[in-house]
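are you around this afternoon, could really use another pair of eyes. what follows is a protein written twice so to speak, once as letters and once as structure tokens for the fold. i want to understand how the tokens follow from the sequence so walk me through it. anything you notice is useful, everything is just below.
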Amino acid sequence: MANFIMQFPLKTEMYQEDMLNKRFEIGRKIYNSLVNVTQKRYKEMIKTKKYRTLLSSLTGNKKTDKDIWKQINDIRKQYGMSEYSFHENIKQMQKHFKDNIDSFTAQKIATTLWKSYDKLFYGNGKKVYYKKYGELNSLEGKSNKTGIRIINDMLVWNGLKIPIVIDYDNYYEYQTMQCNICYSRIVRKYVRNKYKFYVQIVFKSNPPAKIDTETGEIKHHIGEGDVGLDIGTRTIAISSQSDVKILELADRVQNIENQKQKLLRKMDRSRRSTNPDNYNDGGTIKKQGNKKVIWNKSNHYIKYQNELKELYRKQADVRKYQHECLANYIISLGNKIYVEKMNFAGLQKRAKNTEKNDKGKFKRKKRFGKSLANKAPSMLLTIIDRKLGYYGKKLIEINTFETKASQFNHFDGTYTKKSLSQRWNDFNGIKVQRDIYSAFLIMNIADDLKSFDIQKCNERFENFYRLHNLEVERLTGKKNLSSIAI
């Protein structure tokens, strides 16, 4: 059984907000103190010859590396680089603040830091950072029995009792509160020039069904059949037996991005006029060696900074809302959803080599970092996988390098490499949009997830081509992204 999260506003009074702000700051200082302690250990550990030799001897083969990983983990435990050790360390720090931070909440702070080290050890993390002032905006408990807990629609935590705003006339909220509570999290958000506080309750069950108030029917269903997704940095092509679509991801985010750019220019002008000594004559920032550069912030700059915070919040909320809606639509098309395995982190990186184009001009080293940050395609796939989990299904990733969906032609079984600018396929007079055709092929993947089922492709192509033409007709005459090419 899966967990789900529901967020409710807290009805706080001024003294309660002051108390919560104080506790967030204490939580940040405890976190930074633990970073300080663990970084010293980590630096001592990576100095040892044995540890460096073991890391360099890893081959990437799970079987041969098993014994090496055991030795590496033993060294890490010896230097106190484990989650359990972090919990023991934070106990000593928490006892000085026990009136504000309980032991379970302190342990969760330690777990948060351990996740950063876990990413550093096993993932693609590069460094563990301290949290700046105002950066820690959530604190969570471990259960609903002690520490941060919910009792009779009240948030109870170390002397604080704050009412939770729950609308029991809303069927979904009423059904949600009947579920078993796993643990709770207090979240602080900067909304319209002030902090607002919320509680995120993690329930131990699948979420209740949403009911349409007018018809009384369940809003979201899972469909039957195969669905293929061809997801890019800004668009997604969807192919199923009932519908074919190519859509811009989170299309309402771009308006906020334009406002953000104007605000950033205002901030830059304000900072330059307030700190003229920090800039060279050419406009670049002066290098001051190990000396910390001091930036003075004018009242206008602080005002713009707060406006920027608000825009980031709006952008994140709009993006998540649109992804949730799109995920519901995709799941309604079928219960077997296929997508190519994508390395979005790799697409964000700048190119290393300096190259020139055919005209002799230098190519830009920038890649898709901004598009990925604004559109968050990986987030959409995570949401789809989560929603499928409620029905006992999961998102099926196919082998990108084996299938080569963008190059394949199911009519003759050949592969043709195409440039990014080539957005249409021409199969002896049958013109099909490239991304939509890739989604169609992905929908008809074989059981091995490495090749396409040609029989399925041939049987379903006529219906697909009819739906494809309807989608092209829908988009014709509208202002579309250049990558859609309609």
Notes: The mean pLDDT is 90. The first helix runs from residue 14 to 47.
